[in-house]
Design goal:
The protein is mainly α. It has 8 helices and 2 strands. It has a domain of 52 residues. The longest helix has 22 residues.
Length: 143
């Protein structure tokens, strides 16, 4: 019994000694850390990556279509959207998200994958509560 308590006291004092050294302030360390923190970060290479620049230009050319406000003709310009699909999109408005096109069974997932980078769903109101009321499921009166 005495031996186990002696070992416990010895270990705890050893741990406290090590912890004291670790957390002790070393002025030479602080000045070295300060000099590192004031350095300017290394800048990336000065030459722009031509592949990235080409992608940026291509992305800037793509015109996003708002599924909450586009006409049937504008919707038909999207890849995979037929005249019937465009009419279904207009009839199902408003959409809280472009993903609602799939979740409401307006278009299939394959069609959605082809156009999801080209569509957005702008919200009609700045107030989220008003938008939520618009997108709430419609209640049919009971007879």
């Amino acid at each position: 019994m005495k031996r186990s308590s002696f070992v416990a006291v010895l270990l705890s004092s050893l741990l406290l000694g090590v912890a004291g050294q670790v957390f002790a302030a070393d002025p030479s360390q602080d000045s070295a850390d300060e000099s590192v923190s004031h350095r300017k970060p290394k800048q990336a290479s000065q030459k722009p990556n031509p592949k990235i620049e080409a992608r940026k230009k291509e992305a800037a050319k793509i015109k996003l279509v708002d599924i909450n406000g586009a006409s049937v003709e504008e919707l038909k310009t999207l890849p995979g959207i037929t005249d019937d699909d465009a009419k279904k999109i207009v009839a199902g408005r408003p959409y809280g998200s472009k993903a609602h096109l799939v979740s409401r069974n307006i278009i299939g997932m394959g069609t959605y994958d082809g156009l999801k980078k080209r569509v957005i769903a702008k919200q009609p109101n700045k107030d989220a509560a008003q938008n939520a009321a618009l997108y709430a499921p419609k209640q049919t009166p009971k007879k």
